[in-house]
Design brief:
This protein is mostly helical and about 500 residues long. The protein has helices at about 1-5, 10-30, 35-45, 50-65, 65-75, 80-95, 105-130, 135-180, 180-185, 195-215, 235-245, 250-290, 290-305, 310-320, 330-350, 360-375, 380-395, 400-410, 415-445, 450-470, 470-480, 490-495. Helices cover about 80% and strands about 0% of the residues.
Length: about 500
């Protein structure tokens, strides 16, 4: 533990920050700028906006929904192997998407495969960054999570140019090849503590070594020689047959004992797994008993449901309203992405200030984001959409606060599990948001009602988070949990109240 404490907040931790930043940039660059690809897929496959929107929603939502599984993978195998495997998944999914014959195949290759790979990268980078930082954790997480925004800014413009030069298929092949550099980023993720899988392997190896030390030598290796130091092969064979005949009953008995021991060992392993599973479920139940954690999960779900659709639809909104004929050199997605990058850094710095309440800071970003969403339908100029993209992008940087707030609520020991639960709610909201907005457009042929719905969801989540985390709830909880005290005099009562 002393060695782990020394490396916190500096040293190799900054190399971890750079590697995690690059990993999120490479993994999330294309999914976060999927709004540039969305009009191309609409034109190529001639499907409805609701059906095509599933591609963008799944790539952002599947990884977050699978966060509990991704977190378990990081706990068992470590950040480095998980990042290597996720690099292969992201690159493979992007390259497969270049050969997609229809939207359904694209939903699998781009939405599910790339989405799961991104989820693994996200869990690995945030977990190892939290392990290396304590006092500067907010700043470190802010820098790491800006990788997604910087990647979206770069990839939005790059994908736009690659589509012009090489077509949609060539663009996906090139960015898929670039995503393989995730395996290089994984090389820097040196673990502070041995992951659970390696500890189990080490314990099994030590146990097998001890069994081999006390194991009787095989009967075939025993050679009896009487009267001379050398024996002929015929004598050796006869002696072996004699020994096998004499000890055949003992061997059968040992085999029966060995099979019984093996069965007992299997039952012991099953019992341990059941105990671990029940302990895991009990821990999840305890986490969800926390009112602040439940409020935060609801807020993240509603924020994801309402705030993610503009990332996918903002370019199509501008084109459908006739504000611009085609995607500009610097798309609205890029403007929002760079604003999100700034927002993550600024909010990450602000949350480290002692007198700022991180939960109320997150609620404030939700209020501002919800108002911005409500202003989109009444904005009739391209400049207005650019300004709203900046505002929404900046306050969408509150994703850098999720790990920090989760740590404050449940503690560092339960961070991985609680963050997985939180990301499940966030991913579910992200997965539902774009298809709902697309269906609104398919039915009404307008985005107005869809964005009114999105803004209302975000504002509702902000109100729930604010109300359920008021200090009065903690006061009531402490009063309910206070043990009954028998006072012997009024002085004792006054002292107790004091």
């Amino acid at each position: 533990m002393a060695q782990s404490t020394k490396v916190l907040d500096g040293g190799w931790g900054w190399a971890i920050v750079v590697a995690s930043f690059m990993a999120q940039l490479l993994a999330y660059g294309s999914p976060q700028s999927v709004g540039v690809l969305y009009p191309e897929w609409l034109h190529a496959f001639q499907e409805g906006k609701g059906m095509t929107a599933w591609v963008g929603s799944l790539v952002a939502g599947v990884g977050l929904i699978a966060s509990p599984v991704c977190s378990a993978c990081v706990d068992n195998f470590g950040a480095r192997p998980v990042t290597i495997f996720s690099g292969v998944m992201v690159a493979g999914g992007l390259m497969l998407s270049a050969f997609a014959p229809n939207v359904q195949f694209l939903i699998f290759s781009y939405g599910i495969v790339v989405g799961l790979g991104c989820g693994l990268v996200y869990a690995a980078t945030l977990t190892i960054t939290c392990q290396y930082f304590d006092k500067r954790r907010g700043l470190a997480l802010g820098i790491v999570t800006t990788g997604t925004s910087v990647g979206a800014f770069i990839y939005a413009t790059a994908q736009n140019e690659l589509i012009v030069l090489y077509g949609l298929d060539g663009c996906l092949l090139i960015i898929g090849a670039v995503a393989l550099n995730l395996t290089a980023c994984a090389g820097f993720m040196r673990p502070l503590n041995m992951p659970g899988y390696y500890l189990k392997q080490k314990a099994a190896l030590e146990r097998n070594t001890e069994e081999q030390l006390f194991e009787k030598p095989p009967l075939d290796d025993l050679k009896i020689s009487t009267g001379s130091k050398t024996t002929t092969p015929e004598k050796t064979l006869m002696m072996k047959e004699l020994l096998i005949t004499i000890d055949s009953k003992d061997i059968q008995t040992e085999k029966k004992k060995g099979s019984l021991i093996a069965r007992l060992a299997i039952m012991k392993v099953i019992k341990k797994k059941q105990q671990a599973y029940s302990k895991y479920m009990h821990s999840m139940y305890e986490i969800l008993q926390d009112q602040a954690m439940v409020a935060f999960c609801i807020a993240v779900f509603l924020f994801s449901l309402g705030a993610f659709p503009p990332v996918l639809f903002i370019e199509d909104v501008a084109q459908s309203q006739g504000l611009i004929e085609e995607v500009s050199v610097i798309p609205l997605v890029s403007i929002g992405a760079i604003a999100t990058c700034v927002g993550k850094l600024v909010l990450g710095i602000m949350v480290d200030i002692r007198w700022i309440n991180s939960i109320y800071l997150y609620a404030f970003t939700m209020y501002a984001g919800g108002v911005s969403l409500l202003l989109i339908p009444i904005t009739k100029t391209y400049l207005g959409l650019q300004i709203l993209s900046v505002v929404m992008g900046f306050f969408s940087g509150n994703w850098s606060l999720t790990s920090y707030i989760t740590t404050k609520i449940v503690g560092l020991d339960r961070l991985t599990q609680a963050h997985g639960i939180l990301m499940f709610f966030g991913g579910f909201g992200i997965m539902l948001g774009p298809p709902v907005v697309g269906w609104f457009f398919d039915f009404t042929q307008s985005y107005d009602l869809a964005f009114y719905f999105s803004g209302s969801c975000v504002l509702l989540g902000a109100c729930i988070l604010t109300l359920l985390t008021l200090p009065c709830w903690n006061r009531k909880h402490s009063e309910n949990n206070r043990p009954d005290v028998l006072y012997t005099s009024n002085c004792d009562k006054v002292a107790s109240v004091a």
